[in-house]
Input
Amino acid sequence: MLSRRHLLAAIVAVLVAGEPAAAQERLKVLATFSILGDLVKNVGGDRVEVAALVGPDSDAHVYAPSPADARKIADAKVVVTNGLGFEGWMSRLVRASGSKAPIIVATNGITVRKAAGARGDADPHAWQSAANVKVYVANIRDALTAADPAGRELFQANAAAYIAKLDGLDAEIKSAVAAIPVDRRRIISGHDAFGYFQEAYGIEFIAPQGVSTEAEPSARDVARIITQIRQLKIPAVFLENVSDPRLMQRVAQETGARIGGKLYSDALTSNKGDAPTYLDLMRHNARELIAALAH
Ligand code: ZN
Output
């Protein structure tokens, strides 16, 4: 039998051992953008304090870092980047910060695809395949473990649990796509971010012909897109940067194609939005695509 005093001591010991890292110093991790920040949070749990340089609803491609960002990097014990040229502004920023923290490239080990168009650059949007994100998660787990060896078991358990969710997500999207007739697995989209999604899940993203993805398509551009949809018999169109609803109504009327909703590519939304986490982002996009392509 334990005496009262022993029991108390045992309880205290359990409390101290089980105390979350919050009370201790949490490992400061800086991710370059919101999607990576979410992955780090899932792997690091309570032992890390994660911030993202480029937050929700913001475009990392055109990001202009501030002096405050250099300070954030200087404060971080681990910096997690996507790599593949996604954060073109990063190397200067790291130099300016004087940081000695390890700079992790989360895409290390994935099979890199070439970006659409010229120049043969790598396509950085590798997170658009859940299988790739398993590699991201393993890299993040290893980096956190190297920086905080006492967290090894937690990082391993969290990474394994999240990888299981990624497997589930991957299977879910594949089986939803499998229910769509092969000749309907095509959309027109102004996004250039879905090459990995296309490879992984077999929905083809066709760029609108002769239309810059930057600018809003004009009425004449839309007429050209209508011809393209008819010629290629494309069942659905996702053109979020057409702000005039009459133009999109015209596309629907003249082609019979369905008009899809918003797809999220490079950033999460705020908590109130459709895609506050990576898993939400992928599910949202898959749902939008499947709804537009289903019979
Ligand atoms: Zn992008």
Summary: The longest strand covers residues 27-33. The pocket of zinc ion is lined by residues 61, 125, 193, 265-266 (CB under 6 Å). Strands lie at 27-33, 48-54, 78-81, 103-105, 186-189, 204-206, 236-238, 258-259.
